[in-house]
Amino acid sequence: MNGKTEQVFPYALRSAVWEITLKCCFRCAYCGSSGGTARENELSTAECLRVAAQLSELGCRRVSMIGGEVFMRHDWDVIADALTSRGIKTCIITNGFTMSESIISALKSVNIESVAVSVDGVEEVHDAFRQKGSYGRAMKAIDALTGAGIPVSVISALRADNAPRLGEFYEILKGLPIFAWQIQACSPMGNAAKGVDVRFDAGEVIRFVARTAPEAPFALGIADNIGYYTPEEGVLRGRDGAYFEGCSAGLSSIGIDSVGNVRGCESMYDERFNEGNLREKPLRQIWEDPEAFSYNRKFTPEMLTGKCASCVYGCVCAGGCRSYNYFAGNGKLYENPLCARSVCRDK
C-alpha cells in the first residue's frame, strides 16, 4: 500500500431531464424550447441507448423524458425501456394531444413510473396559446392514462393570464384521479421571450398553495423557480417539511438535449451553459470535469447580488433558480426577480 486514499468525486448525479426530440404537434407561444420541428441530426436510437447506459453507470436514479413531444419520436419506448430496465425511475412529460391506446400499451410495457400532462388552466386559457380542442384532448389523455392504471400528474406553467385563475382550475382538477399538481413559473425564454407576459404575483400563488394543499386530494406543490423562505416554506414543495435548498443544476442533476448537449438544467437554454456534447465526450468525463458547472459548484454567498445579497437565507437558497434568474433577470444568475419573501412577509 502506498498510503494514498483514493479521492471520491464530491458530486453524485441523481436526476436528469432528457429532451429526446424537439419535434412537437404544437408551436406554443410560451414554449421555452421553441419546439415544433425536430433539430437537425438528433441523437440516433443507438446513441440514445448509449446515453441511457452512461446515465445508469453514473448512478442516475430518475429521468424525466421531455420534448418537443416525446411521443412524436418513433423510438421513444425503446429509449424509455433502456432506462427503466436499468432500474431508473422514468417519467414522461406530454401535452397529451397524441395519446392513443397503442401509446398507453407501450407505456405499461416499459414500466413508466408516471406521466405528467401539461395543462395551463381552464379550457379557454389552455387553448388560447395552443389550439382549439387541445384542452379536451389533454383531459381525455388523463382519463385514458388513469383508467389504464398509469399514475398521472398535471404541470401548469404560470403567466399573467392563468395565475389569477388557479382557484378555478383547482375546482376542475380535484375531480380527477391524479396524484400530483405541480405549479411552476413560465420562464421568459424561447418563444416566451417574444412578447408573452409571464409576470404574476408569486406571493398570491404561494398563499393559494399554502391554503389549498392541506385539503387537496393530491400532492400540490410549487416548483423550484417560485419561492423562497416565506412563512409558508415547508408546506409548498409537495412534501411535508420540504425546503428549497438551492439550485441543483450540476450538483445532482443535469439536462440533455436532443443533439447531445449537456447542461446543469434543461431549462438553461443558452449555449454558455453547455458543458460538453455526448458525441464528443462520455457523460462521466463531462460530469467529473473539475471546471464544469462552475456557476453552482463554485458558488459562495459573496456572489449573491441585489436583495439576495442581504437576505439572511441567501446562503441556503443560493439566490434561487439559476435558469429563471438568468432569463428573467437580464443574465443575473445570483438574484431572483420573483422571490416572494418580502411580499409574503408583509401580508
Which terms would index this structure?
single chain; 347 residues; 12 helices; globular; disordered C terminus
Short description:
It contains 12 helices and 10 strands. The protein has helices spanning 45-57, 76-84, 101-109, 123-128, 134-147, 166-173, 202-212, 283-287, 294-297, 314-317, 322-328, 341-345; strands spanning 15-19, 62-66, 89-94, 114-118, 152-158, 180-185, 219-222, 253-256, 261-263, 276-277. The radius of gyration is 20 Å and the shape is globular.
Task: Please tell me about this protein's structure.
This protein has 347 residues and is of the alpha/beta class. The chain is 27% helix and 14% strand. The protein has twelve helices and ten strands. Strands 7-6-5-4-3-2-1-8-9-10 form a ten-stranded mixed β-sheet. Helix 6 links the parallel strand 5 and strand 6. The radius of gyration is 20 Å and the shape is globular. The termini are far apart. The C terminus is likely disordered.
SSE map:
Blueprint: E1 15-19, H1 45-57, E2 62-66, H2 76-84, E3 89-94, H3 101-109, E4 114-118, H4 123-128, H5 134-147, E5 152-158, H6 166-173, E6 180-185, H7 202-212, E7 219-222, E8 253-256, E9 261-263, E10 276-277, H8 283-287, H9 294-297, H10 314-317, H11 322-328, H12 341-345
Parallel strand pairs: 1-2, 1-8, 2-3, 3-4, 4-5, 5-6, 6-7
Antiparallel strand pairs: 8-9, 9-10
Helix pairs in contact: 1-2
